[in-house]
Design a protein that fits this description.
The structure holds two protein chains of two kinds. In chain A, the strands form six sheets. A four-stranded mixed sheet of chain A has the order 4-1-10-6. Chain A has one helix at residues 2-14; strands at residues 17-28, 38-41, 44-48, 54-62, 66-71, 77-79, 86-88, 92-94, 100-102, 104-112, 115-122, 129-132, 135-139, 145-152, 157-162, 170-171, 176-180, 187-191, 195-196. Chain A has one helix and 19 strands. The longest helix of chain A is centred in the first third of the chain and has 13 residues, at 2-14. Chain A is mainly β. Chain B is of the alpha+beta class. Chain B contains eight helices and 15 strands. In chain B, a hairpin with a 2-residue loop joins strand 9 (106-108) and strand 10. The radius of gyration of chain B is 26 Å and the shape is flat. Classes of the chains: A mainly beta, B alpha+beta. At the A-B interface, strand 4, strand 9, strand 11, strand 14 and strand 18 of A face helix 6 and helix 8 of B.
Chain lengths: 215, 355
């Protein structure tokens, strides 16, 4: 019986087929693991990730075979890499650890669809409302500085306006700045230098003396 | 106990003792086979009665590079330091400091260093937020580590430069610590050591106010003494021979045992190991030891507007270290979500910037 098993094993190994240990990690781009995520191998459910965001299992196949790895995308997230997610089955051995077999590791990175960004405003003028797309987000403090967090989609444009309607003497009036929201958390600084506009004083001309013309 | 500089066997010790300058009390430098001076590094609040957090002795050759990188002779782990921040050079007459193109600059007594500047006792050399104070003679009489850190002269020193021995143990004159590193202050901290190194006229500078030397401050590397192979062989010949034989026996035993047991293929995910097999060694990841945390003083409501202005200005100017210190104060009570966000943002950037 043992001889038969050994022969079967040998024949199976001769064409490179067998069980390959694999380790699939599903993490957010900030390193947060996704637990209990179903992972598919060639559109077949292979298991669910654990608390550490990893699924450790064995895959049957041949040496060098390409296996498509996919997950059901969690709500509010997208896959960071647009390239097809697949792994290649390889027999890996740790030569430094007594020939121990190593799993084929594969990581699926997810990035959120919306992110938070910080907006820092240096206006030098206290009491100025700061608006994002017309909605007031903050008011500059006594030092003329304001800060708020803005939630937006990476790649979108963010328009910040300093509303100076209540201060007609300030120049420029209602200045605005635009930013393209990055793919990573970031802070954007809006710096504006205002000057006080003084309306020119009109000279009042005395009416010309109307009277007899001197000869 | 005084530390003696080792002398050559022929007794012809080559050394130079600096004569005292007429206008200053000299910090004595002993030059012996390239040994110029010894630096003492001390971290922590000098006003505190608690013992020093770290203490180490360093032997300086003619040139010492101080910085954050591993290529520096004196490596200090501080975010404000460049990898190769500054260089101290002993030219035979005086000690000079030169900035090596650092990001945060080098100052001597608050004045920026453009070209090599001489350093005299009592001077304060600031590298980023790290301050090295060159103490004048007799400035720290109560220093508990003075004996361990002072410079010493050998008996061959010139008589006119010899001093009266205070401890009377070996007839050697006591010398003073050359440099002391103290942590930079945090504005509003209950126990400030500002008087140690902060010039009074610069107390209100934003750099000083926002400078932090917090829990990340640690002395990470201690230079190994140079190995004298020939002397080691002469003094420990028997031990080295026996040790070498034992090492060979151990190697042969390891090879023999590995030949006896062929490697067994393991299932990397198996929960149970074969009977009789040794469990895998527990690998503890290398990590820096737990550091004493520096309490961040939360900003009061009255000072929040000004601190926010300083934080935004520092961030805009790219002074992330300064900015981070202020954001931490604003975020200390946890009520300011924006400040908490900025602390995380800057800390993650600093982690990414680290090699």
């Amino acid at each position: 019986m043992r001889l038969v098993l050994a022969l079967a094993l040998l024949s199976a190994c001769s064409d490179g087929s067998g069980r390959f240990p694999v380790s699939i990690s599903v993490v957010a781009d900030d390193g947060t693991p996704f637990s209990d995520m179903p992972v598919n191998f060639n559109n077949t459910v292979g298991g669910r990730t654990g608390a550490d965001g990893k699924l450790r299992t064995h895959v049957l196949g041949k040496e060098g075979q390409k296996i498509a790895v996919s997950i059901a995308m969690p709500k509010g997230y997208k896959q960071s890499s647009t390239a097809a997610s697949s792994l290649v089955l390889r027999h890996l051995v740790d030569t430094t650890d007594n020939g121990r077999t190593l799993p084929v590791e594969h990581t699926i990175k997810l990035s959120p669809l919306v992110r938070q960004y910080a907006v820092l405003v240096r206006a030098g003028q206290p009491g100025l409302p700061v608006e994002a797309f017309g909605a007031e987000q903050a008011v500059t403090n006594s030092e003329g500085v304001a800060m708020f967090l803005y939630t937006g989609t990476p790649g979108d444009e963010l328009q910040i306006k300093l509303a100076t309607t209540a201060h007609p003497e300030l120049r420029p009036q209602n200045p605005s700045s635009s930013f393209v929201l990055g793919q990573k958390p970031d802070a954007y600084v809006v710096k504006e230098h205002f000057t006080i506009y003084k309306a020119p004083v009109k000279k009042v001309h005395k009416p010309a003396h109307v009277g007899p013309k001197k000869l | 106990m005084s530390r003696k500089i080792p002398q050559p066997e022929d007794g012809a010790t080559r050394q130079t003792v600096l004569p005292d300058a007429p206008d200053e009390k000299s910090t004595r430098m002993v030059e012996d086979s390239g040994v110029m001076a010894q630096l003492k590094a001390r971290f922590g609040d000098r006003d505190s009665s608690a013992p020093e957090e770290a203490l180490s002795l360093y032997t300086l050759p003619d040139t010492v590079v101080v910085g954050r990188g591993s290529a520096a002779d004196w490596q200090l782990e501080d975010d404000s330091l460049s990898r190769k921040h500054a260089q101290f050079r002993w030219n035979g007459r005086e000690l000079t400091v030169e900035d090596l193109g650092s990001a945060n600059g080098t100052k001597v007594n608050g004045k920026g260093v453009v070209r090599p500047e001489p350093v005299r006792p009592g001077d304060q050399v600031q590298l980023g937020t790290v301050v090295i104070r060159f103490e004048p003679r007799g400035s720290s009489p109560a220093d508990p580590d003075a004996q361990a850190t002072r410079l010493v002269e050998t008996p061959a020193a010139r008589p006119q430069d010899r001093e009266v021995d205070n401890d009377g143990d070996d007839g050697l004159a006591p010398l003073q610590p050359v440099a002391t590193v103290v942590k930079a202050p945090v504005a509003g901290a209950p126990k400030s050591n500002a008087q140690v190194f902060r010039p009074p006229q610069s107390a209100a500078r934003p750099d000083e106010v926002t400078a932090t030397w917090d829990a990340s401050a640690v002395l990470v590397k201690q230079k190994e003494p140079s190995l004298d192979v020939r002397g080691l062989w002469h003094t420990h010949r028997r031990v080295l021979v026996l040790g070498g034989a034992a090492a060979w026996i151990a190697i042969l035993l390891i090879v023999w045992t590995s030949l006896e047991k062929p490697p067994v293929e393991e299932d990397p995910f198996a929960t149970q190991r074969p009977a009789g097999d040794k469990p895998a060694p527990v690998v503890t990841p290398l990590s820096t030891p737990a550091l004493p945390t520096v309490a961040v003083v939360p900003a009061s409501p009255a000072e929040r507007p000004q601190l926010l202005a300083q934080a935004v200005a520092a961030y805009e100017q790219g002074r992330l270290v300064d900015s981070l210190g202020i954001w931490r104060r604003l975020a200390a009570d946890g009520s300011d979500a924006g400040a908490v966000y900025m602390v995380k943002l800057i800390e993650s950037r600093q982690k990414q910037d680290q090699p």
